Amino acid sequence: MPQLTRRGLSDAAAWERAGIALPPYNTQAAAEYTRQSPAWLHFGAGNIFRGFIAALGDTVLGENTGNAGVVAVETFDPEIIETIYAPHDNLALLVTLLPDGGVKRRVIGSIAEGLTASRENGDFDRLRRYFEADSLQMVSFTVTEKGYALRKPDGAFLDIVARDMETGPDGCVHVMSLIAALLYARYRNGGPPAAMVSMDNCSRNGDKLRDAVTEIAAAWRDKGLAEAGFLDYLADPSRVSFPWSMIDKITPRPAPEIQKSLESGGVTGMDITVTAKGTYIAPFVNAEGPQYLVIEDAFPNGRPPLERAGVYFTSRETVDKVERMKVTTCLNPLHTALAVFGCLLGYTGIAEETRDPQLAALVRRIGYDEGLPVVTDPGIIDPRAFIDEVVTERLPNPFIPDTPQRIATDTSQKVSIRYGETIKAYVSDPARSVDSLIGIPLVIAGWLRYLLGLDDEGRAMDLPGDPLLPALQASLRGVGLGDPDSAEGRLTPVLRNASIFGADLVEAGLGETIEGYFRRMLEGRGAVRRLLTEVFPG
Question: Are 65 and 305 in contact (CB under 8 A)?
Answer without folding.
Answer: yes
